[in-house]
Amino acid sequence: MEKDTSVADRLARMKVNYTKEGMRTSFEAILLVQEHNHPHILLLQIGNTFCKLPGGRLKPGENAIILFFLLFSSKLTSKLGANSPALVPDWQISEAVAICWRPNFETMMYPYCPPHITKPKECKKLFLVHLSEKEYFAVPKNLKLLAVPLFELYDNVQRYGPVISTIPQQLSRFQFNMIST
C-alpha cells in the first residue's frame, strides 16, 4: 500500500524524515513499453490523483553501488512483482537517465543543485529499466498501472509533475527501435 495519498502528505513525511535521517536519496524506474507502435511509460497512479514512477529510497548508510542495484531490483519486485517464485521479473537496470534535486520541501525539483543550497532535501535518480518481452506485474490495491504515451508527458507539468513531464527530453538522447508484432 502507498503511504501517501497526496503530494502534500509525501512532502510532510519527507520533512519529518529529513530531521531524523538527512537528505533523502531516491531512485525511480522509467519502464518503457510499446503500445500501438508508440513508446509508453508505465506509471503508478494513486487513486485518481497523482502519478509516480516505481522506485524507492536508500536508507542512511546504504550507498554502495552494488547494494544500490540489488536494493533497486528488490524494491521494484516488492512494488510490482507478481507474488510467485515462478514469475520473478528480470529487471535490467541501465544507466542513470537523470538526476533531480529538491532544494526545499516543495514540489519543484531541479536538474542541478542550486549553488546557494548547502543542504538539499532530496536527490532523485531516474534509471531506464529494460523489461523482457513478457512481464507480469502485481499492482497494489490503492494504485493503478498506467501506460502513458511518451508524447502526452511532454511539458505536461500540471498533470504529471515536474519530474515525469521531463522524461521525453531525458530520453531524447536514446534511439529506440520499435518492433512491429
From TrEMBL:
GO biological process, one term: mRNA 3'-end processing
Gene3D superfamilies: Nucleoside Triphosphate Pyrophosphohydrolase
Keyword DNA repair set for record: no
Pfam families: NUDIX_2
Any one annotated GO CC term: mRNA cleavage factor complex
Keyword field: mRNA processing, Nucleus, RNA-binding
UniProt cross-references to InterPro entries, sorted A to Z: Cleav_polyA_spec_factor_su5
Coiled-coil boundaries: none
Record's subcellular location: Nucleus
GO molecular function: mRNA binding
Function: Component of the cleavage factor Im (CFIm) complex that plays a key role in pre-mRNA 3'-processing. Involved in association with CPSF6 or CPSF7 in pre-MRNA 3'-end poly(A) site cleavage and poly(A) addition. NUDT21/CPSF5 binds to cleavage and polyadenylation RNA substrates. The homodimer mediates simultaneous sequence-specific recognition of two 5'-UGUA-3' elements within the pre-mRNA. Binds to, but does not hydrolyze mono- and di-adenosine nucleotides. May have a role in mRNA export.
Binding partners and assembly: Homodimer. Component of the cleavage factor Im (CFIm) complex.
Family affiliation: Belongs to the Nudix hydrolase family. CPSF5 subfamily.
Name by which UniProt lists this protein: Pre-mRNA cleavage factor Im 25 kDa subunit
Organism name: Hibiscus syriacus
